[in-house]
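User: My collaborator and I are trying to settle a disagreement about how two of our proteins should look. Neither of us wants to argue from intuition anymore, so we agreed to look at predicted structures for both before our next call. Could you fold the first one, then the second, and keep them clearly separated?

Assistant: That sounds like a sensible way to settle it. I'll keep them separate. The first protein:
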Amino acid sequence: MAGLPPASPTLYPKKPLDIATYAAYPSGMKTQHLIKRKLARAESITIIRQILEDNDNLPRSKIAERVCEHFLFFNAWGKPQRSGCLKALRELERVGHFLLPKARFCPPRNRPRRLSGPVELPQNVPAKAGEVRGLRLVKVEADAEVRIWNELMLREHPKGAGPLVGAQLRYLIHSQHGWLGGLGFSACALQLKDRDRWIGWDASTRQQHLHRVIGMSRFLIRPSVRCHNLASHVMGMTLRQLASDFEVRYGYRPWLVESFVETAHYSGTCYRAANWVAVGQTQGRGRQDSANNKAETRKAIYLYPLEKDFRTHLGVADEPEQKTLDITEGLEGAQWANNEFGGAQLGDQRLSHRLVESAVIQAQTPGRAFCGAAQGDWPLVKGYYRMIDKPDDCAVTMAAILAPHRQRTVQRMRAQQTVLCIQDGTDLNYSSLVQCEGLGVIGTNQTGAHSRGLHLHSTLTVTPDGLPLGVLSAQCWAPTPKSKAQSQPARTLPIEEKKTFCWIRSLRDSAALAKEIPNTHQVCVMDREADFFEIFDEPRPRQVDLLVRAQHDRSTGGELKLFDTLRQSPVCSHLSILVPRQSARAKRSKQKARPKRAQRTAHVALRYQQIELRPPAYHKGKAPIKLWAIHLREPSPPSNEKPIEWFLLTTCDITCVAEAEQCIRWYNLRWRIEDWHRVLKSGCRIEGLAHKTAERLKRAIGINLVIAWRIMLMTLLGRACPELPTEVLFSDLEIKVLRSYALKKTLNPPYNSEMLCVW
């Protein structure tokens, strides 16, 4: 203790407090003991020095007990929190506050107890969870159970057996067929941005109540087990008894469980089936990443409340009332950009203000380079490019830029009974940007030269009347062609590794959103590229339906395949369809030539019937899926005209002709996203952007996605709501200019709403 100032002998009681005194202490384990924070205070350091001086003959563990007795560091059972206190004392010693007694021995290296060989594989496991005999959870307590759990995790779980931290519980999944897997629970993450935002607590509240959140650190269904719904079934069993088992061991009940999913390898289907809530993503940091290296992969965060009023228990207010927005609300010329971009989490509040300012300028003259749109205002130009040219690993991302607009889109969706979530993709050609890093290959011409660019897959939401509500999601990536070494059949790849997985990812986004907008029916409308078995097999809540144009003429189990079966079914109704005119188009590098077509009215026959979608050969264990198929065909087209014929597959119930016609109207609005792509490319000219990296291109694209949505909405609102006041969208000067321009033009003929329109 040489060199340290002396302590007063009257700073702490000589006789420790007893358990009865502790039991009367108001906090108990209702809030978490912030051991290190309390011990690091100046007055606490002085008391610890006095304890060390008066007990210099005691070992470290006894010193820690004395400190616990003085500062009331007891767990729910009244036992001193010796290990946590000792850890804090060692950390304070390292920074020079005092000297602890020399450690008397070094603890042996912790090696997990194991079996002498692998755990025997289960035998004859049924294909469905409900048919598993004797399924039960075994709480790991005895030595034999510990060895089985460790052996399973070390051999069959990607993360191994641990070590786990904090308060822990382990379970084994047993059945008459053998050991099926295991689960492990431990302390939750210390800090998670998306989790903490979803809960609604601040840093102080989080520190007090963090022990009430526990993490599911290990979940294993053995790779040899192929049993439908087993994972979600076991998860439900565990969550029903977890709080009680935890209370028996530690004396208090947890209120919330968290877990992480490696979305690059796992889809998280069992979590959604067990009613977990997806709340965001991790930042790629591990528990010990004090240097912010972000060496871990980013994972999806799932939470499961064990108590309905957990927010009240955690000391935060209940969720705020869900707000709805009218489609025309907040679109005023002076306010729209702040509404759609304001508050974006870009790492610096100044960047959020700059984003709003830049969007206003770009929207005034879309399609021009920003330096031209800013009309020579050098500070504005410099600020915009400084924001776009941030390092690729910073917080300025396409997702962060679109986040406020997505929130407003959800509020507009909440005001609708039915919303069409239209998915589609488009290639963005940046072959002229020779020095741009991070671009992919989007095509190859006849000479073998590669076209470089990005692929954009988006979900545009529209009302049943065709008015766009906003961009719900946007995925933008650089496609990579397969090498000869990767030329394995697509059927052998997991769905997460196929290029079609983007359709499922967007569908999962809509499914997760159903909890926020439970009273809104979402119809996910997709083109023929989305006609694959996995998307119909994807779990969905009842508020989410699919409407997909069929591409594959599948076997139905009878003599005829799907298309001929529908063609020969009885006609249910006849419809008149308006086919708009089409201008001629010359052949381009990636587009075929298109002949001129005059506007005409087509008379078509409507058929529909329920079918069973049979799984492909590489999904033999799957059950057939019941769908409704709609067939639309023009029996007598004009000469030299291709007849109209559609095959639609939907999960919506079709019990009458009116419901079938409704689905046709909905699918007809799929062309809204094609119009939006045209606004992006021709109006906003996003293929004319020029930046040094693909990540910077994505940031600029994200801004233009919202601008193109607003341009499209302004156009369609004028047609759908001609009585709408012009002041909603235009300034006084713009109205004056447009009025003068309109006097020189002839109005278009009114739209005939009694006809369907096929584009």
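The second protein, kept apart from the first:
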Amino acid sequence: MNKLISAVIGCLFIVESSASVIKGSIDTTQHADKIEPTIYGQFTEHLGYGVYDGVWVGENSEIPNTRGIRNDVVAALRELKVPVVRWPGGCFADEYHWQDGIGPREQRPVRKNNWWGGVVETNAFGTHEFFDFAEQIGAKTYLSVNVASSNPTEMREWIEYLTSDEPDTLANMRRGNGRETPFSLDYIGIGNESWGCGGAMRPEYYSDLYRRFAAFLHRNGRGFHNNNDNKALAVASGANNLDTNWTHVVTSNAGSMMDAISLHFYTLNNGEWPTRNELTATDITQESWNEIVYQASRMDDVLSAHEAVLEFNDPDNKIALYVDEWGTWYRPEIGNEPSFLFQQNTLRDAITASVTLNIFHKHTRRVKMANIAQTVNVLQAMLLTDGAKMAKTPTYHVFKMYLPFQNALPVKMDLKSPSRSHKEGNFDLVSGSAAIKDDGTLMIALTNADFGNGHSLNINLGKNYAINSAKILTHQQANAHNIPGENPTLEPFDYNGLVVLNEQLEVDLPAKSVLVLQLAPQ
């Protein structure tokens, strides 16, 4: 298959394969820990239009809603089977006081959002609204509690308000606010980016502060008091990027009191936080394409570095690694408030999401959760809204294509991919992952991050399979994206540029593409 021509959705894709064939193999007898659904988690912060307009419009809005929460956003996220949502931040969390967000909305205090634009925070979307949102989309809940500007008492009282089934004052306050039964609280993050916006702390100081807060969680689990009300897992505020010293100090000093430690890693131009001259989401050259794909590929090395620390401090693998903020970060779109972090979402973002998910599939021994930033209208969002209009982004479609990987067992996959040299290092032009489902279905994801060239692949499967489905996401234009209220430019479609014969999978993989296959054993 040297050249494949497919006419799909009114577009003509010509796949020019490179002269050499990329060889690969899959060994289904070698597998790692299962792919936890929570690796496909979401992050929603009080930032820009992420919550207000993105999730919450209020009961009196003309936009169709259920108890103030947008019906279209809920329906789209239910399609993704979102496993967990982290809230209320982010930097916002360490200035947030939970009692501001309960009770009659007209009586809730109005605050200034000091981190994100200095705008008014009405607190209309608070505890009950968040848990309602999570229940509507079918997701677990992950609270990031205020450590930097609060104390353990406030955290403890929030947890009691949420989880107590007794006739105590806080539980009765919850009942008086309309919720008789306790909420389901699944994860508690003790602080956020405590090295930065969450208090500018040193790891030695934070680890002692973590111990103090964790002592008042009153829950079942390692190092905690027994109490059946609170069963949430405890998550320490982790490092930024390659700061392995933070991971070492915090887990050395407080590891016995945590179930997981977080890690934040963003895909940034030159690996640095955005500046005025940062790349935009849609102005894409081959050079800027390669820069962003290279930075995304660094996730593999970053995870390995922190895992090495955890293996030393926690050889019994009791502390999970949660990458609870990740994704692309560009200069905000012109015409929008810069601090709202609104950016478009293109085919390049779909590629980086796919590259990253493939990497997570390699690290399932430690990586048990990941939360892309963010769900709606902020950074690498799943969804973009404009009034009553909504668009599913290319990243959304990648997450949906990868849905069958949830709970599957990742198996060994070797690809002899050519690499591309770029500034600080190299990245594979073609990457992938494979996993086996309970019914024996073999899942294969392949990502061609080559800006201009298709590639032919020949992968030894070890046994015969039949093709159940093959979905591809690709486009001639690197900056192809979807706009709320307009017909989508970019969506997955069925692909026939492959064949399985004599235990061999042969694929013509277009440039700038993500392909997900489901193969049935014969």
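Some points you might bring to the call about the second protein. The chain is about 20% helix and 30% strand. The longest strand covers residues 11-31.
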